Amino acid sequence: MSISNVTVFMPSVLTLVGIPGLESVQCWIGIPFCAMYLIALVGNSLLLFIIKSERSLHEPMYIFLGMLGATDIALDSSIMPKLLGIFWFQMSEIYFDSCLLQMWLIHTLQGIESGILLAMALDRYVAICYPLRHATFFTHQLVTQIGAVVTLRPAMLITPCLIVIKCRLQFYHTTVISHSYCEHMAVVKLAAGNVWINKIYGLFVVFTVAGFDLIFITLSYIQIFITVFRLPQKEARFKAFNTCIPHICVFLQFYLLAFFSFFTHRFGSHIPPYIHILFSSIYVQVPPFLNPLVYGLKTKQIRIHMVKIFCLKISH
Question: Which region among 20-24, 155-159, 217-221, 230-234 has the lowest average model confidence (pLDDT)?
């Protein structure tokens, strides 16, 4: 696809390439992406249904897990329909304002997911390190307040990115985005003007949200492991580790893929574009796909209720 050298003033329509260099095989790449999307929708919806319908699961850990499932559904649905439209039907055009809306949704929902992972880590920290205080500390009022904070924090921090793009970046070198979705830096790189404010503010948002959360999640699990190793009974240590394993798996895959995508966009000029964009696409797809599988298999209470539901359907 050729890119024009003519400067465009506030384009009304942009074009998403998909995965640069792999355009000829995108129709095949779309098959596993579609399968993961459907599994993510079904898995997270089932998770939400179980948590909502079972009163015994109306505890902070499961409420946070339900919030994570709802966020995953929203995140996946803000990307995959357009992505599959590009891969299968060459529906590559997107209105400029729609692109900004998608960008806001993606980064806000990723920030919400990061905040929920922090809340889940803190919940496990209090439950394991201070078990007698857990019920009095993590009240439903506090859980509601945490939910409001983790939602409003990224929403308010991401909004100025849209305002800066809309007000400052008037001229564009090209209307072709070499990406599969509207990512902040992918859009900013199209601009013909000085984009240092956008880059600096983008770094500020990432380290304010993901950097802050990552530090406190790491500190929480360090303290958890110290406490677990001090437990006298082997069975108690095993139970505590078994509770934390799903959280650690989700935490690692989310942040490793997130920081790979983030640093590659800014410092990975030597990495082939198709590898970067493919991993960025996988990054937004894998957490919603894996989360219900990890928690469904590793969390005993959810696994029990899931088996009950399927057994009831089979008996009918």
Answer: 230-234
Tell me the backbone φ, ψ of residue 190, rounded to 5 degrees.
-75, -20
The candidate with the shortest Cα–Cα distance to 49, out of 232, 296, 253, is 296
> In this predicted model, what pLDDT tens digit does every residue of 213-248 receive, in sequence order?
999 999 998 898 888 888 777 777 777 777 777 778
Q: Among all chains, which residue has been given the structure tokens 């400052």? A: 168
Q: Is 252 exposed, middle or buried (0-12, 13-18, 19+ CB in 10 A)?
A: exposed
Nearest alpha carbon to residue 286 among 309, 252, 315 = 252
Strand order in the sheet with 93-95: 93-95, 13-16, 176-177
What radius of gyration, in Å, describes the C-alpha atoms of the chain? 21
Q: Which residue, 221, 260, 270, is CA-closest to 243?
A: 221
Give which of 220, 63, 207, 217 is closest to 143, Cα–Cα.
63
Three-state SS for 270?
Answer: coil
User: Phi, psi at residue 177, to the nearest 5°?
Assistant: -95, 115
Alpha helices (H) in the chain, listed in sequence order: 26-53, 60-89, 96-129, 134-137, 140-168, 184-188, 196-206, 212-229, 234-267, 273-298, 300-315
| Spatial separation of the C-alpha atoms in residues 122 and 231, rounded to whole Å | 19
Which pair of tokens denotes residue 84?
């599959």
The residue whose two tokens read 């900013």 is: 188
pTM of the predicted protein model: 0.89
CA distance 59 to 20: 45
- Inter-axis angle of helices 273-298 and 60-89, nearest 10: 140
DSSP 269: T
Upper half-sphere CA count for residue 72 (Cβ side, 13 Å):
33
| Rounded Cα gap, residues 210 and 260, in angstroms | 13
